[in-house]
Amino acid sequence: MSRFGRSGPPPIRDTYSLLVLNITFRTTADDLSPLFEKYGEVVDIYIPRDRRTGDSRGFAFVRYKYEEEAQKAVDRLDGKLVDGREIMVQFAKYGPNAERIQKGRIMETVPRSRGRSRSRSPRRGYRDDYRDRDYYRKRSRSRDRYGRDRYRERDYHRRSRSRSYTPDDYRRRGRDSRSPSRSRSHSYTPDDYRKRGKHSSSAPPVHRLRKEAPVRRLRKEAPVRRLHAEAPDK
DNA sequence: GTTGAGCGTT
């Protein structure tokens, strides 16, 4: 819904759309309306919102009936402090269906070169496809990156404690890629198992390896005991 | 609850 059109937007042709950028996320059409109406006949005010949360996306469209009035609003309102922020007012460049606009007014430059070779309902497919792609591209700019990027960062730090995975790793492990602990493959040699025969369970913990390595280097008499222990073993 | 380049209908 827009500010003035209770039943859908008023006819968009023959109006001059202004794009109002940099308004706060709390500014509503009602806040903008008195401001812009001072300079002419405002046909409609529309603030795009998040479809889920309903939050403002931080800009608005103000449509004037006459170009001179729209132009005047640009001159007077561009750079004006509204709700603590300097708004930017300019003529809109694109319409709801990505039609080109000149001076805020839609120019009928609809893609006519796509021909009629499409036999089956090309209109709906093209439109929906465009709008969906556009929607997700735009939404992923500032607000939506919160939950997702935050999560991704945490996940990244968690799994990068041991080593970094190559794209090949992900491809090989496929859906299992979320549990890296399983693939922590140290690849023990037979020698490893022989040296710690008494703890010989299946897979010795990693920290044992780190602890024992220096010990072996420090004890100079260790090899002697090992020799005694190993010799009569057969 | 956070945000900040851009172009559109509940």
Automatic annotation (TrEMBL):
Q: Does the keyword ATP-binding apply?
A: no
Which residue ranges have biased composition labelled Basic residues? Answer: 113-124
Q: Where in the cell is it found?
A: Nucleus
Residues covered by the RRM domain: 16-94
Q: Which GO terms describe its biological process?
A: mRNA processing; RNA splicing
Q: Which CDD domains match?
A: RRM_SRSF2_SRSF8 (cd12311)
Q: One GO CC annotation, please? A: nucleus
In terms of Pfam families, this protein maps to:
RRM_1
Keyword annotations for this protein, in alphabetical order, are: mRNA processing, mRNA splicing, Nucleus, Phosphoprotein, RNA-binding
Query: What name is this protein filed under?
Result: RRM domain-containing protein
